[in-house]
Automatic annotation (TrEMBL):
This is Ribonuclease R. It comes from Bradyrhizobium forestalis. It catalyses: Exonucleolytic cleavage in the 3'- to 5'-direction to yield nucleoside 5'-phosphates. Belongs to the RNR ribonuclease family. RNase R subfamily. The gene is rnr. GO terms for cellular component: cytosol.
Length: 782
């Protein structure tokens, strides 16, 4: 095969062959190294890779390329169960369901005589050699075990269900092992009652039939919401207790003093946080710049808790913090990254108490751009502890006893500096996806009181913008000093997602430029075009799903969403390990004293730390999300049969996912309950479309549903459809005209016309097997 053209540049076939031969490992750097390309050839190589991706020959994700829609030949997988023939079934250990949908199933092929180290069972984690299945029956992949990486846990978490004859069964809380019940003998219940959340040791396993277990620990009844967050904590192996050595280090720590610090105790820094915040790790202050060369400019000071002074590299506190990676926030508790004596006491910037901090002083020009910055290790004393609504009320003319004296000397200069900084932010034009965030409020007994959407105030935006400026300053300083650091990076959307978004917008007659450099402005134009239309929430959701996931990396490839070339987390070292690393690097770079980043830290070693804390961040997000789902499912369990309004939040071949307007809870309308006709899944439109009537149910549709089933342990809800805007409005697509939300009709629809069947892509439809539209069968549908 010819590997290069006449100019010595590799041809398409050679590049594709190299990618296929090195699955999961190939990026621009590896291809350039393989074919001896110089820096001048990189642009041509990137262009060729884009063409290959456009043609569907390869799949591009961040800086890696692979064969399209294929698992790598070797991967780490979790063995999750058995099929009807008793054969083991596995799924990839790392899989982004939001980005890639349901993980593919892998049928494990076991040899007649297994080699040592390859005898597997349900719950094991194994390294597999994977091939595509040769037929359409069963799982899409076949796998052979290379090595067992981790045997099934000998202790699992579940709900104890008592049996009339004594003893009971354990129902695991992990959805992956929902069908893997354990038998609990009468003598092994440990006093557990029906409905108790328990930790169980596996004492005997079998190839077939139920394994046996012994209750090791009772964690409380699942009938109490206070136990629900424990499910996520145990299910995701989130460390709950600190080591005794770490606790000794925390208790022995002494308050910071002026030694090696600048005295900023007279600077009136204030903290502005949520009203229920337990730790306060950032404080702000601003004043007009009196430099005649910077008329209209401001000086902004951001002080951050000096965690690096207390948590030194290599100590027990450091090891525990790295293991956790970040704090995890549940509605009823916080699992902190650091012991409370550090996070809520010595490092918390409480009013009136001297506290050590690492501060950055930034000079903003009248255009809002940062002209210069400097870092200082200081001793400060917070002038006040405010919450967002309190600060905003004072600016809006409703000061209280606390904010009244602060209004002119502190708050007005802060807001004036923010107005200045906002000019530069607006010019930078970061991705403008201001989606509402719901918050669960609990009663005193731990049960759900209500779900609210806190109003987003200028006070929130002020703190957010000052923190972004401080994070940029930290990254710039460390790059200037040539020190390794951990960046916060956010890649641009993949070509596949951009094309999918463009195809979707075409169904709404909205243009989207797919060529040229991709910038947040590209998406902002689309959102601005649709602002005020009924389709705006739908398009916002699809634009969000097109974005990549932010992560930590020792290699900088910028932050696409914020439209920044360099960005590093610096402002929350109490709750994020990445920020602690950046603090240590600044201490080392500027010679600020103790707690510096060790000389032994390299980009390679920090790369490993970045990969680990990216995983712990995703673990925390998943645990928090699952806990909210379980809490709301528990809250709604006694409202079976009630009707709710919601919006279609997801469309799959299995049915429609609906997010309720009242609580933000997500549930499934199974496709079998939609009607008697077949429904095609139209991926480009994010819709299910009836092949006979043309009825279309689409992402973003407003629907009325009835709650049919609630499963609190799984955090799952099942609905049946009562009515939909799809049924009252046909889907005639026309160019969107300016139209405000007061109009009842969706843009592009024509209510006076009869519904026309939608043109469908080729492909198999899915039969909706319910007897009548809106009536579903009882039983699990997930």
């Amino acid at each position: 095969m010819k590997r290069t053209n006449d100019r010595g540049f590799p041809d398409r076939n050679a590049i594709v062959a190299f990618i296929k031969a090195n699955p999961g490992k190939v990026g621009t750097r590896e291809i350039a190294r393989e074919f001896g390309l110089k820096n001048a050839d990189r642009a041509e190589l990137r262009r060729m890779l884009r063409e290959l991706a456009d043609d569907g020959v390869i799949k591009k994700k961040r800086h890696k390329v692979s064969e399209p829609d294929a698992l790598p030949p070797t991967l780490l997988a979790d063995i999750t169960g058995r099929d009807s023939d008793g054969e083991l079934i596995a799924s990839p250990a790392e899989w982004d369901e939001v980005e890639s949908g349901e993980p593919p199933k892998i049928l494990i092929e076991m040899p007649r005589r297994a080699k040592p180290g390859t005898a597997a069972g349900v719950g094991d984690r194994a390294l597999l050699r994977v091939d595509r299945a040769g037929d359409d029956e069963g799982p899409a992949y076949r796998g052979r075990i290379i090595k067992i990486i981790d045997k099934a846990k000998s202790r699992i978490l579940g709900v104890f269900r008592a049996l009339p004859e004594g003893g009971g069964r354990l129902v695991p809380v992990d959805k992956k092992f929902a069908d893997r019940e354990l038998n609990i003998a009468r003598t092994d219940t440990g006093g557990a009652q029906d409905g108790d959340l328990v930790s169980v040791d596996i004492v005997r396993t079998r190839g077939f039939g139920l394994a046996s277990g012994r209750v090791k620990e009772k964690l409380g009844s699942v009938k109490s919401e206070k136990a629900i967050s424990l499910i996520a904590i145990y299910a995701h192996d989130i460390p709950l207790q600190f080591s005794s050595a770490a606790m000794r280090d925390a208790e022995a720590a002494e308050p910071a003093n002026l030694k090696g610090r600048e005295d900023w105790r007279d600077v009136p820094l204030v903290t502005i946080d949520p009203p229920d915040a337990k730790d306060h790790d950032d404080a702000v202050h601003a004043q007009a710049d009196d430099d005649p060369n910077n008329k209209g400019g401001f000086i902004v000071n951001v002080a951050i808790a000096d965690v690096s002074f207390y948590v030194r590299p290599g100590t027990a506190l450091d090891r525990d913090a790295l293991d956790r990676g970040n704090s995890v926030y549940f509605p009823d508790r916080v699992v902190p990254m650091l012991p409370e004596r550090i996070s809520n006491n010595l490092c918390s910037l409480v009013p009136g108490e001297p506290r050590g901090a690492l501060a950055v002083r930034m000079v903003l020009g009248p255009d809002g751009r940062k002209r210069s910055h400097s870092f200082h290790r200081i001793l400060m004393r917070s002038a006040a502890k405010l919450h967002y609504a309190q600060a905003q009320a004072a600016i809006d003319g409703r000061p209280d006893d606390t904010t009244g004296p602060l209004l002119d000397p502190i708050l007005r200069p802060l807001y004036a500096a923010y107005a200045c900084a906002k000019r530069a932010r607006d010019e930078r034009d970061p991705l403008n996806l201001d989606l509402p965030e719901r918050k669960i409020l609990l009663k005193g007994d731990g049960t759900v009181d209500r779900v609210v959407v806190p109003e987003r105030l200028d006070a929130h935006k002020l703190i957010e913008e000052f923190m972004i400026l401080a994070n940029v300053a930290a990254a710039e300083m460390l790059e200037k000093k040539s020190l390794p650091l951990i960046y916060r990076v956010h890649d641009e959307p993949t070509l596949e997602k951009v094309h999918a978004l463009a195809e979707f917008l075409e169904t709404l007659d909205v243009s989207f430029a797919k060529s040229g450099a991709l910038r947040p402005t590209t998406f902002n134009r689309v959102l601005a075009q649709l602002e005020g239309h009924d389709y705006y929430p739908l398009v916002s959701e699809v634009v969000l799903r097109a974005q990549a996931q932010a992560e930590y990396s020792a290699e900088n490839y910028g932050h696409f969403g914020l439209n920044l070339r360099r960005y590093a987390h610096f402002t929350s070292p109490i709750r994020r390990y990445a920020d602690l690393v950046v603090h240590r690097a600044l201490v080392r770079a500027l010679g600020l004293g103790e707690g510096a980043l060790p000389d032994s830290e390299t980009p390679e070693s920090l790369g490993e730390v970045a990969a680990h804390i990216s995983l712990t961040e995703r673990r925390a997000m998943k645990a928090e999300r699952e806990t909210v789902d379980r809490l709301i499912a528990h809250h709604l369990a006694d409202r079976i049969g009630a009707s709710f309004q919601g919006r279609v939040s997801g469309v799959t071949r299995a049915g429609l996912f609906v997010k309720l307007s009242e609580t933000g809870a997500d549930g499934l309308i199974p496709i079998r309950s939609l009607g008697t006709e077949y429904f095609n899944y139209d991926e480009s439109r994010h819709a299910l479309v009836g092949t006979r009537s043309g009825t279309m149910y689409q992402l973003g549709d407003i629907v009325d549903v009835r709650l049919v089933e609630a499963a609190p342990i799984a955090g799952a809800l099942r609905f049946e459809l009562l009515s939909s805007e799809s049924e009252s409005s046909p889907r005639d697509r026309r160019p969107l005209r300016p139209q405000r939300k007061s109009s009842k009709a969706h843009p592009g629809r024509s209510p006076e016309k009869k519904r026309k069947p939608e043109k469908q892509k080729s492909g198999k439809g899915t039969k909706a097997k319910g007897k009548n539209k809106g009536k579903g069968k009882k039983g699990k549908a997930w």
